[in-house]
Fold this protein.
Amino acid sequence: MKKELRNLIKILTSCYPNKSGLNFTNNYELFVAVLLSAQCTDKKVNDVTPFFFKKYPDFFALCNAKEKEVQKMIKPINYFKTKAKNLIRAAKLIVDKFNAILPIDQKSLLELPGVGEKSASVILACNNIPAFPVDTHVARVARRLGLTTHKDPHKISLDLKNKISKKYWISMHHALIWHGRTVCKARSPKCKDCVVSRYCPSSSIYR
Ligand code: SF4
């Protein structure tokens, strides 16, 4: 890696927590939170999950849940009907095929209803398995920082994995999300408050 990129990684990863904004205490809770978080803020998910986990504490409970009741519990979440259906179907598959334990490998995760490449990568990363999930924040900040020119999340992930050492994939994934949420916002990036503005080709400060 080039010195500038090393410095940028060092600064960003030291400024932000190396953890997800979702609240969970085990892989069952992680799975539910990640599925609910598609097209939805972590805050909304974190508001709903404490009640959800109390009523459905594991995959056994969830696979026997009534779809209408799950819908009711997650109603504040976007696409709650589809997500309720996927959660129950996925729980049934995990109970039947994986002995009620969430499989922690990309291929098995992608077999589960509602799990795409990004969700699978987030689950892997939260289990400390090197992955570089790309959400809207990662995509935007990576483009502004000149780490990719792509718009497609898969291609962005490949660019980031090629440029950044594997040992930083997870911490940089988290750092780019936190940076995008708090400083490098979609509409009005706060370049004056940005700790990496000197390395950023999109910075408004030096123009
Ligand atoms: S300098 Fe501005 S555009 Fe670049 S990363 Fe920082 S906030 Fe984003």
Remarks:
- The chain has a mean pLDDT of 96.
- Residues 141, 144-145, 183-184, 189-191, 194, 196-197, 200, 202-203 surround iron/sulfur cluster (CB under 6 Å).
